[in-house]
Specification:
This protein is an alpha/beta fold. The longest helix has 12 residues.
């Protein structure tokens, strides 16, 4: 089953990092977050990826084009103009890099990779978020639902700490809970499983926003299911998010990492 990753946006809310490189190439623990996302799938045997490139897509292409070299020890013989590779740590990935346009919206990017999908069920997610998703369980849930689309629904953690007060004194703090779960709402956390028929719901070309007309149409037709994930999920929207993910990784406590080094 192929895995599609949207990696073409401008990342305007992350301008301090995305001026020179696309958002999915921002590093966590010395590796692009795109690599982390791919490892989430790869640990379960899903190794066929389609990357939807756009803004500074050449950066992503260059990264994978030279991946084998950067992950290997090498001997370069300048006199013989030859290179010998040793102890490669390369991944078992097949990566298709598709230029889906600079200003194309999310739905338009998905539509553009239709020729690479064919008539097979596929997965799709965003190139800026990680989670402790059990991918095989997600896929099985989708298959049993019989629907055209399944999205992973999550409850985001609150941005600020929550304060509770004593009943007898409204100014006396009773407890302080750092970054509690949100207000009970479920939101789109990415990590979709999709049938090829979803392409028929993308009708506005490059201007189609996946989260608008296509998903609304699927929901209206009773073809959109939610896989509720109550475990770890974290998008990287700001420098603060990046630092939080970096801290988790640096401490060896990254919840999304379930693979062996």
């Amino acid at each position: 089953m192929k895995v599609v990753i949207l990696a073409g946006g401008f990342g305007t809310r992350f301008s301090e990092e995305t001026e020179l490189r696309p958002k999915p190439m921002i590093e966590i623990g010395g590796r692009p977050i795109l690599w982390h996302i791919m490892k989430i799938y790869s640990q379960y045997g899903f190794n066929d990826f389609i990357i939807c490139c756009g803004y500074r897509g050449y950066y992503i292409k260059d990264y994978f084009h030279h991946y084998y070299m950067h992950e290997s020890d090498i001997t370069i013989d300048l006199a013989e103009n030859s290179t010998e590779y040793h102890a490669s740590k390369s991944e078992p990935w097949r990566v298709t890099l598709v230029d889906t346009g600079l200003n194309t919206m999310t739905g338009g990017r998905i539509k553009r990779i239709q020729p690479y999908i064919g008539d097979e069920t596929f997965m799709m997610t965003y190139g800026d978020g990680v989670a402790s998703i059990d991918i095989p369980r997600l896929v099985e849930f989708h298959r049993q639902s019989g629907k055209l689309a399944t999205l992973t629904a999550v409850q985001p953690t609150g941005r600020f700490g929550a304060i509770t007060f004593h009943e007898s004194d409204e100014n006396m703090i009773k407890s302080f809970l750092e970054k509690p779960q949100g207000d009970g709402i479920w939101v789109n956390g990415g990590f979709f499983v999709l049938e090829p028929s979803v392409f028929d719901y993308i009708k506005e070309g490059d201007s189609t926003v996946w989260e608008k007309t296509p998903l609304e149409g699927l929901a209206s037709d009773g073809q959109l299911n939610a896989y509720k994930h109550s475990g770890f999920w974290k998008p990287m929207d700001t420098l603060r998010d990046k630092n939080e993910l970096e801290t988790l990784w640096g401490r060896g406590n990254a919840p999304w990492k379930r693979w062996n080094d």
